[in-house]
Amino acid sequence: MAARSLAQRGRVGERELRSREPVAGGHGDPPRVPEDDGLFLALKTLRKQLADERSVPAYIVFSDATLLQMAQRRPATETELLSIPGVGPKKLELYGARFLAVLR
Q1: What is the pLDDT of residue 53?
Q2: Which terminus has fewer CB within 10 Å in the chain: N or C?
């Protein structure tokens, strides 16, 4: 006897809808900075330079989501930069000063 799939049991549609709904009280996405924003483009340019210097893909330096957070929140100190998702102690050490210079 074959097991019934979730679609046959009528649960897939309901589950798909629920997975796309925002969670009440969740963090949600921050307001998006337009990708043509000058600061966001400057951060992307710096990320590309750093990635090229280290011979790694740009996303290894920081993701677009992290750059968008930087552009939106505009951290001015190392502590503020560390509060951005995707920025940890190692990346702060490697890249923090250069990104803060662009952000200031």
Answers
A1: 97
A2: N
Q: How many CB atoms lie within 10 A of CB 88?
A: 10
Q: Where do we find the tokens 């307001």? A: 31
Rounded CA-CA distance 1/12 in Å is 21
Domains present along the chain, CATH in parentheses? 38-103 (1.10.150.80)
Q: Is 55 left (phi over 0), alpha (psi -120 to 50) or beta?
A: left
| Backbone Cα Rg of the chain | 19
Better pLDDT: 33 or 67 = 67
- pLDDT digits 0-9 by tens, 65-94: 999 999 999 999 999 999 999 999 999 999
Angle, vertex CA 34, rays to CA 31 and CA 35, nearest 5 = 125
pTM score, whole prediction: 0.66
